[in-house]
């Protein structure tokens, strides 16, 4: 599903967010540049500077999909400084990777709130 019509609505939710879950179609090499632009626009927003970032590299069950490290690199995730982030391979059809990714995110947020700090470590 293309998100073109929903993108303008994203910003209104940023001030209420402690985390970003960004799902990427790991098979869509043609649009990874667009995914990067949108990702960078969100993570560079001042309201998101202290938010944890979970990238789900979807469609890992398909032959030829970009692996999680490649997705992170192509999004520019590894260029971000002082950000708590993780890329997890996932498959929406089977649920693979969701427990791992959401478990990491829950633990990250729990630790941050326990210390009474922003998520950034």
From TrEMBL:
Q: Where does GTP bind?
A: 58-61
Gene Ontology molecular function: GTP binding; GTPase activity; phospholipase activator activity
Q: Name one GO biological process term.
A: protein transport
Compartments annotated for it: namely: Golgi apparatus
Which Gene Ontology cellular-component terms appear in the entry?
Golgi apparatus
The UniProt keywords, alphabetically, are: ER-Golgi transport, Golgi apparatus, GTP-binding, Lipoprotein, Myristate, Nucleotide-binding, Protein transport, Transport
Asked if GTP-binding is a keyword of the record, the answer is: yes
Q: Which PANTHER family match?
A: ADP RIBOSYLATION FACTOR-RELATED
Protein family: Belongs to the small GTPase superfamily. Arf family.
Q: What is this protein called?
A: Uncharacterized protein
